[in-house]
Specification:
Layout lengths: L3 E2 L9 H5 L5 E3 L11 E3 L9 H5 L6 E2 L10
The structure holds iron/sulfur cluster (2 copies).
Length: about 70
């Protein structure tokens, strides 16, 4: 199951973007509820390796499940 970036928890730090082995983490449009940049995961490309969740410094920003309802593009 692909991972999900919770758009309104992500702070746009982008540690995950460079760490993802298949480059499936992309910038979201505009700002989130925190007023920060945010990223999203392309579910069709994600290989569920979990690296993004390990490197993310923001607690709760990455979930190890597919939650389209929590992730904006
Ligand atoms: S998911 Fe975490 S590491 Fe990735 S951009 Fe958001 S805050 Fe940064
Ligand atoms: S689980 Fe792996 S493949 Fe999927 S977005 Fe995170 S780092 Fe990329």
């Amino acid at each position: 199951m692909p991972h999900t970036i919770v758009s309104n928890i992500c702070e746009g730090v982008a540690d995950c973007v460079v760490a993802c082995p298949v480059a499936c983490i992309k910038p979201g449009q505009g700002k989130n509820e925190k007023g920060t940049d945010f990223y999203y995961i392309e579910f069709d490309i994600c290989i569920d390796c979990g690296i993004c969740q390990k490197v993310c410094p923001v607690e709760g920003a990455v979930l190890a499940e597919e939650r389209e309802d929590l992730q904006s593009l």
